[in-house]
Amino acid sequence: MKIGEEHDVKITDVGAKGDGITKIENFIVFVAGAKKGEECRIRIKEVASRFAVGEKIGPAGKGASETSEESSDESSNESEEPSETSSDEE
Predict the structure, then answer these.
(1) Could you give the domains of the chain?
(2) What is the pLDDT of residues 30-73, one digit of tens each?
(3) First to last CA, the chain
(4) Which one of 8, 56, 58, 75 is separated from 34 by 20 to 30 angstroms, measured CA to CA?
(5) What DSSP character marks residue 61?
């Protein structure tokens, strides 16, 4: 996980300080102002050895994962469509 990465997440819990909590790639991510059950797009601001801090940047795109663990770079492949192979050899 790197600073500046963006992820669609679902907030699964709320921490003692009121920050939303989600999990991405086995990192616990704290998101200020997020509420439990909220699906949002976040940008990573800080990365420590076992946790990260993100900021809400908008609503989640389609298909925010329940655990958020799958939302790494999969969204970048969604726009690729399989190319049609046309065979003109007859």
Answers:
(1) 6-71 (2.40.50.140)
(2) 999 999 999 999 999 999 999 999 999 998 886 544 444 444 44
(3) 51
(4) 75
(5) -
